[in-house]
């Protein structure tokens, strides 16, 4: 079994309400044994899973619109922005998993330990807003996919997404490894769909390689800069930082310094490889748009539905649009699973309140369904596309309130001990944080006032 978390006595606040056991994932928490004395690959398999669950948040439907618009308008140029965004994500997710493994506390619990009650409540509210915005993107993405695949009207598709709560609750009772396997299967479906799209589209290898190199025009061209910031803003998800810091604790390993150091190494490999897969998928969406649309003179494709309808005639392959919509549906459903867990982690970590999973899920999904249903009924496809963009703006606004505490805690030697960030990691972490905060602030300002 997992040891009780080690609480650092130097943390000054809220010692009276600290829990005596891991609160995160109470309904699905099944310890996954890490074999001692095993070889590299056996240990790697034991630690594989949390990275994939985090990675699906980087390919949720909210990313699709920015990637499609970037590819259709500017070709392969913004591929470098997707690469840089993923490198930022790899660093931040490493910090999140390190916090969880080194301290036995997830990010929400660490915030409750360190900050005053009013500050913790504010951070909790902001986290809930971010999770609701994420769920909104999943609802809209799934509804659009159901409309494209089966002709289901958008309002009906939005209502239909309410039933995925039953699926989530069913598999939560089967154990955490089952949920990881489902997410891995959905991730594999998305990956295979875009491998097919890349084979059919036959993009230019030289152009893709060139697009991976940052260009000065990304900053000098206002239109390109705006989309580049949108891609960055849609990439790093605040709820993923809370999620990752908790689910890495589902592995049972020796909790001495050597054991923790080994766990951080394997968890980092899991996270980095998974995010590399997410980079391939996000990059594929942009490359597909660049090859199918930009190359053929369709420069204004920013809508998922328009992209779906244009794929077959442009590429001349009847299955291209079907695989595109199937990947979108898998993206929405995989993000639903991880969003549910993140919601439980955030509420229990900040408030030390445990709700029944079905009640927690119904509340979150209800908040997301209501605006999506109203907008889809009154304004149709255009309205839902705009609402999808708005959900990403809301996420951008919330991001700094998760990133700053994460970097602060992992740089604090009194909390992390020998696992505290080195000076170099601290410098780059704060630099990345400032860049993300600045660019997301710029995106928000321009979205509201331009």
UniProtKB/TrEMBL annotation:
A molecular function (GO) term: manganese ion transmembrane transporter activity
Q: Which UniProt keywords apply?
A: Cell membrane, Ion transport, Membrane, Symport, Transmembrane, Transmembrane helix, Transport
Topological category with respect to the lipid bilayer: Multi-pass membrane protein
Give the UniProt record's GO annotations in the biological process aspect.
iron ion transmembrane transport
Q: Where in the cell is it found?
A: Cell membrane; Membrane
What residues form the membrane-spanning segments?
Answer: 74-97, 143-171, 183-205, 225-243, 264-290, 310-330, 362-380, 392-411, 423-445
Task: Give a GO cellular-component term.
Answer: plasma membrane
**Quick one: where is this thing mainly located?**
membrane
Q: Which Pfam families match?
A: Nramp (PF01566)
Do you know which HAMAP family this protein is assigned to? Answer: NRAMP
Purpose? H(+)-stimulated, divalent metal cation uptake system.
Q: Which family does it belong to?
A: Belongs to the NRAMP family.
Q: What is this protein called?
A: Divalent metal cation transporter MntH
